[in-house]
């Protein structure tokens, strides 16, 4: 049967979140009903809420959920009621990339996660007063006290780890960590540069600190974030508002350039600077997403010495193995994710948005009072 729950609805592009009751459809065979305990706020949520992406509004966003399973569909085998879960992206499970362990590059990733607003069969998961709302966001739409979640978005996790401490693993953290571990794969003595010290960038810094890289350079314009980057494992920092980035990176890398660079800012100007700062055979991982249609000019001859520029979605992670490994690192204190998190009651979602937009909060996490 269907479920009535409280959700944060975006009525139209640029409108604030409105807390209201919505109706969740009954779980399908491959879905579960999850009581949401916490959910992270991500720049992707803000981009969609602003009307910057063609997601159907009014709708319910949220894609870094964590909670407790309450009910499962008839074909669900990976989780059971009572299990603690982190919610991540969904995928079809059948295409070549899904079968090959790269579900972030699923053939139907965009409609299933970002812009479709419905299940793959076109049916709605969320309605209000009998009218369908945009939902199924990343297979979860977790800005709600309860969420109807696609089976492939569910990752069972250690119940001893507080869910509010690991909710961001579903998107931002696994993206930053995956950029380093799954793409750059630093070798002994490598130099890694992280452009932007937000949640994704700082996650990349923490990941790099767990590799054989010997120089980890964090770049940002906010001094407080650079100080935090140093505490999380950066060996050097660059304030891009006070120093010429290209010249400073050349000095810090002894003129050789960086072996790996993670670009998280979404600025095409910064992306170009990153490409120019690569060492021969170096790799630039593009994580930050500027508006659709953005282009960047590159020096083609500058790429000839084996430089690579690689786009990345969600860390190119296979979530069922990747997220539990991250949870264990959080539990052991080796991935100090709590240093990034600021918690807010769900009712204060608009304050969390304002603080994130103003740079006061690196990773806001919304928490929910127990519901019955």
Question: Roughly what fraction of the amino acids lie in strands?
Answer: 25-35%
Give helix and strand order, one letter per element, not per position: EEEHEEEHHEEEEHEHEHEHEHEHEHEHE
How many beta-strand segments?
18
**N/C terminus separation:** 16 Å
Computed over alpha carbons, the radius of gyration is: 20 Å
Q: Helix proportion of residues, in percent?
A: 25-40%
Task: Please characterize this protein's 3D structure.
The two termini are 16 Å apart. By secondary structure, this protein is α/β, with parallel strands linked by helices. It contains eleven helices and 18 strands. The mean pLDDT is 96.
Summarize the helices and strands and which ones pair or pack.
Elements: E1 3-10, E2 17-24, E3 31-40, H1 43-49, E4 59-60, E5 65-72, E6 84-87, H2 96-99, H3 109-115, E7 126-128, E8 131-133, E9 146-150, E10 154-156, H4 172-184, E11 191-195, H5 199-208, E12 215-220, H6 223-232, E13 236-239, H7 245-252, E14 258-263, H8 268-276, E15 278-286, H9 300-303, E16 308-311, H10 319-331, E17 341-345, H11 349-357, E18 363-367
């Amino acid at each position: 049967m269907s479920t009535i729950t409280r959700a944060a609805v975006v009525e139209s592009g640029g409108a604030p979140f409105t807390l209201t009751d919505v109706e969740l459809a009954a779980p399908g065979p491959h879905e579960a009903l999850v009581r949401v305990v916490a959910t992270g706020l991500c720049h992707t949520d803000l981009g969609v809420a602003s009307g910057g992406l063609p997601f159907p509004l009014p709708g319910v966003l949220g894609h870094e959920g964590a909670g407790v399973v309450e009910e499962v569909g008839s074909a669900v085998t990976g989780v059971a009621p009572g299990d603690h879960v982190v919610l991540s992206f969904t995928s079809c499970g059948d295409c070549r990339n899904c079968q090959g362990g790269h579900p972030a590059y699923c053939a139907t990733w965009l409609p299933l996660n970002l812009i479709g607003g419905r299940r793959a069969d076109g049916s709605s998961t969320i309605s209000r007063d009998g009218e369908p709302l945009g939902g199924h966001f990343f297979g979860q739409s977790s800005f709600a006290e309860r969420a109807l979640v696609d089976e492939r978005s569910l990752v069972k996790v250690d119940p001893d780890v507080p869910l509010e401490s690991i909710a961001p693993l579903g998107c931002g953290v696994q993206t930053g960590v995956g950029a380093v571990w799954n793409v750059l794969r630093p070798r002994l003595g490598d130099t890694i540069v992280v452009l932007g010290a937000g949640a994704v960038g700082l996650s990349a810094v923490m990941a790099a600190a767990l590799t054989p890289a010997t120089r980890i350079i964090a770049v940002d314009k906010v001094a407080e974030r650079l100080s935090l980057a140093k505490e999380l494992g950066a060996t050097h920092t660059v304030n891009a508002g006070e120093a010429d980035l290209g010249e400073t990176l050349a000095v810090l890398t002894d003129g050789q350039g960086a072996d790996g660079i993670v670009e998280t800012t979404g600025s095409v100007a910064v992306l170009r600077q990153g490409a120019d700062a690569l060492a021969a055979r170096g790799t630039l991982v593009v994580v930050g997403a500027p508006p659709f249609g953005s282009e960047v000019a590159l020096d083609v001859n500058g790429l000839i010495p084996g430089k690579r520029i690689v786009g990345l979605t969600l860390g190119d992670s296979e979530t069922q193995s990747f997220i539990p490994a991250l949870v264990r690192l959080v539990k052991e204190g080796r991935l100090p994710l709590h240093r990034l998190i600021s918690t807010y009651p769900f009712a204060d979602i608009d304050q969390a948005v304002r603080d994130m937009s103003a740079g006061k909060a690196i990773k806001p996490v919304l928490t929910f009072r127990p519901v019955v």
